[in-house]
Amino acid sequence: MSNLQTQRAERPGRGVIHRWRSTLIPTTREAPSDAESPSHVLLSRAGFIRKLGSGIYDYLPLAWRTLRKVSQIVREEMDAAGASELLLPAMLPIELYRDTKRDVDYGDLLFKVTDRKGAVAALGPTHEEPITELVKGSIQSYKQLPLNLYQIQTKFRDEARPRSGLLRCREFIMKDAYSFHMHVEGAGGLNEAYDAMYRAYTNVFRRCGLDFTVVEAESGPIGGSASHEFMVNAPSGEDTILKCPASGYAANVEKCEIGERPVEGGAFNGAPTGDLTEVHTPNMPGIDEVGGFMKVKPDRMLKTIVFRAVEPAGGGGGSGGPRWVLAVVRGDHDVNEGKVKAASGWKVELAPEKDARAAGFAIGYVSPKVIVGRTDILLLVDPDAAGGGFWASGADKADHHVKHFNWRREVGAILDDSRYVKLADVRNALEGDPSPRAPGSRLVTGRGIEVGHIFKLGTKYSDAMGLAILDDKQQKRSVIMGCYGIGVSRTMAASVEQNHDENGIIWPAAIAPYHVLVTLLKPEETAHMQAAEKLAADLAAGGLDVLIDDRDERPGVKFKDADLIGIPVRLTIGDKALAEGGVEFKARRDTGKGEVVKLADAPAKCAAAVAA
Fold it and tell me: Residue 223 above 70 pLDDT?
């Protein structure tokens, strides 16, 4: 057996050489029946992944090489940013969640297992609790901070409907990092670490050859304050990104602000358009159904969503019972829970229907008028819903709506009491909305795939788990934390979503499983094989990873497979080119035919193509 079959990079800067017949690359012309997204189709067809169970995949040799390259880039940038790598258990005692209650927050997404003694453990979706417990038992002095620890490990999430291959699965590879600080500002503070992680993530995805956008984001079930997502731009992305072309501002739908929207004539001051008219709308709580029945367009209807304030600000009467927050938007808009929380200053949740009905709300038929005569409601009205003209609304009783709703006539003087009524941005942003950063500019939308997320956690976990140490004044204080995640396997899939054509994958060179594919049209010919081995050795000496296609297959099959697996450069050795002392060179991104280059010149041309 030739040593080229097992050659490995034993010193820095040297590439590897593998043969197709000595590895496992089971390409196929047919995609799995459940594959819809480009990455799921192509990674399956190209022999990178194979489904083992719902949302569970084998990573075959090509995939593992790419995953290792992504991981290495992540490691280099994390290390350069001052973080240290460790490895925490994947199986976590359920008692770790006792104080944070995140097992409740995750709900059915959390995988749980029971051992033979009846002890329950969770398969970690992220590792805030174990890392906090580790640092709590290891750090005693402020002099040991700041600290940033990271791991690259398999994580688990019990998705109800796994889909899109590696983009939404139940077992995945992730890098998660956690930083610890005594203060937010200044040297060694959370902001300094956050900015370092922002730069590191930018470097990671740039080095991976990805076109990406950094967006402001909500923190979700992890918690915390400031948060940014790193989104790979792709038409097939499941997330909507809104951007301001003038300022560069970008945010996801859950976070995106909307610029100033003046209400013509002033909020709540429009004249009545007619007498308030009640309409019987049996079993029609939905906007579209009601609008069609009443012959009213959704943008002339008021949608009122009931939230319960679970943590009223500063007391605010919260001790006397639940406080209710009503968000009013146009019927063609969607209420944004994060904005409701920000506008109210309270932690809110969508009101449980049973509790809301008991409090006097006719769920599905609520109108802003329900606030009249009550002091336990905060009414948040989006500017687009506060103007004059014709409005239809719920009638505050089941199976009924009203036409000609008028703010001033129906709600009255309480509209002027800022304790109970506020004009606020409480809806999801849409394309064409005013930019919040550049007057006169309008938001545009794009699609993206989240591959990284950074958070300023604050003291959420240290408070809950008792992570507190003495500061320089000998006062015990909770440690401030940050959290930083990268989906390693998701990054591989996102790259395919962004980089492919009708023939297959087009890998960015930095994360391609190999840089060069040497295709032998006649592998049985000794001269051809010797030329391939010499060429591969020269390429590897220059730091390029090489795959030799030595299969006994027809040229057409080899060329189709070459395009399918997406290696950046293909060198084809055949009779005609070899007779001229050359080899056919073709970059995967080029749509035309290849060109013949001298064998001696091929390594330099490949290196230049890979570096481009």
Answer: no
